[in-house]
Amino acid sequence: MDSSATLDVAINRRYGRLLSCSAPCAGISFAGFLAAAAGGARFYWEEPNGAFAFAGAGTAVELMAWGPERFKRIAVDARELFEGARHEGDDNPLSGPRLLGGFAFRNDFTPDNTWSIYSPAFFVLPHYQLVRDRDMMWLTINAQIPPEESPESLIPDLTAALEQKIAQLKAAQASMDADEQSALIGVDYPMRYPTWESIISDATERIRAGALRKVVLARAAELRFESPVKLLPILCHLAAQYADCYRFLFEPRPRYAFYGASPELLASTRGRALETMALAGSAARGDNDEADRRLGDMLLGNAKERTEHEIVVEKMRDRLAPMTESLEISPTALLKLSNIQHINTPIRGTLKRKNGILPPVEALHPTPALGGDPRPDALRLIRELEPIPRGWYGAPVGWIDSSLDGQFAVAIRSAVAQESRAWIYAGAGIVAESTPDLEWAETELKFRPMLDAHGVI
Predict the structure, then answer these.
(1) What pTM was estimated for this model as a whole?
(2) 287 and 146 together in one domain
(3) Which of 204, 316, 349, 358 has the smallest count of CB within 10 Å of its CB?
(4) Is 328 a catalytic residue?
């Protein structure tokens, strides 16, 4: 094994010892890694434009939590899992163990048929993880061993397993065939337009009456295929068409997966440094530069869209203020994606304490961009009006490292697959000036990325 291989050992009460060995592994692709892991647990995360990415295969540790304390419970469990970790070879800190997972939209989420294997909080430490930071690649093996076991006695076995895995992955790259999506049987939209018209009219009446300022309402599309949904063609499509988004895959059980390409960063922390964004207000892209500029200018000048966006900025600032010593609200601009453009306000801050990623994630979720304002009233109205549970749609999905820092996106432009079916979700922000037809058109625009990725013409 390469002399720069690293060893991480965490000894704690509940999880015993977490042993991680890493080695450089140039020449392995993420597609090949995930293809080799087909039939097992698979995980994937990539930042916009590929600055940092990692994938996982197999399961070393699972963390789950329920109820209103789920964010705090995952933070406690993650801290205990990583407590006392020893990192040898700090020149490769990104190769260390990393949890990937997410949360349901609601604290009181109860799994239904669509979300049958998901809990309100669910994170996995993969058995193998492939990490890329710009031009560097590492493969890491994570293993959970009993507290009484000597790590030194197991290091040779883990090193041999890592070397063998690297050799297998490199050998498999050349023989990997391109995967094709299963044949589509049909697409169904459980909510018809008359129902949508009714709930939007109900919501706007309540907003005008002063019950709340904004609510985000969503609908779903169900896709049926002849055989299990193929995930790699979808991920490849998203990588090609939505490289400027946070792309993710969470497949803790074979053929039960949550995945997508989200343009919206919920929170990222590194020490006391915090980054987030307010993203609300949408319009289509133009067919040419002039049409695109015109649509963008109309979006920025649209009173309804600016009101919706300003509510998000205001509430995110209010929620972050108690935990930050400084907060910088950047100028508002357009975030342009391949088929849609949004009003975007980047936000950066300095946290008062170095407590990791989960406190700001808990404070922000759901932002008014996915919930509404006031938050409690909006959540009650969502439960009353939406006929289909959101599950993890619109909720935080991301990763946590051994320092409890991490990065989470808002799980929009997403889908959940179960065997040969997939469900896609899209929502729209409703304010007093909203009309059912325009909001319906906005959800159709937001469905498009994931419909295209599944081969729906």
Answers:
(1) 0.93
(2) no
(3) 204
(4) no
